[in-house]
Amino acid sequence: MKIYTKTGDEGKTSLIGGARVVKSHDRVAAYGTVDELNAHIGLVRDQPVNAPRQSLLLEIQNNLFVMGSLLAADTGYQAKLPPLLPESVTALEEAIDQMQATLEPMRYFILPGGHVSVSQCHIARCVCRRAERSVVLLHEKEGVDHLILVYLNRLSDYLFVLSRAIAKELGIAENHWKGKDK
Among candidates 88, 67, 65, 33, which has minimal Cα distance to 144? Predict the structure, then answer.
């Protein structure tokens, strides 16, 4: 099977269900950004410091793939797609709570950086927020499963707390933003 089909050469693609849309369509932007986020999560997962979190990060990637398939389906598509489950949000919340229990309370905004693993979490968090904005835009126009919005919001929180936990585990001082006058 060839990887190239030439069906997208004119700037259109097919949604699940068969509808053809321009590649700049809001739906394509939403699932494309989720796909980009999935690639960044893969890089976060590949960081040696995340060895104990491999299974949750892999679960997150699987959930993002499910989300991508839901977003790639044409409005009204009726065939069975795998669902995104509420338990997936709960798993993120539990992981956030466990990590936060080991961290100092925040007193400042935190500037990204200090170590490649920390920075990669922040990049993934920013892409997650962009995915969330893209899905919100699609939701305003066509409607989207609300759980997708909840999951992306919680995932960005998870990635932020993960960046702090990694910094602590690696002994990296957080860079606090103090403003110009401080």
Answer: 67
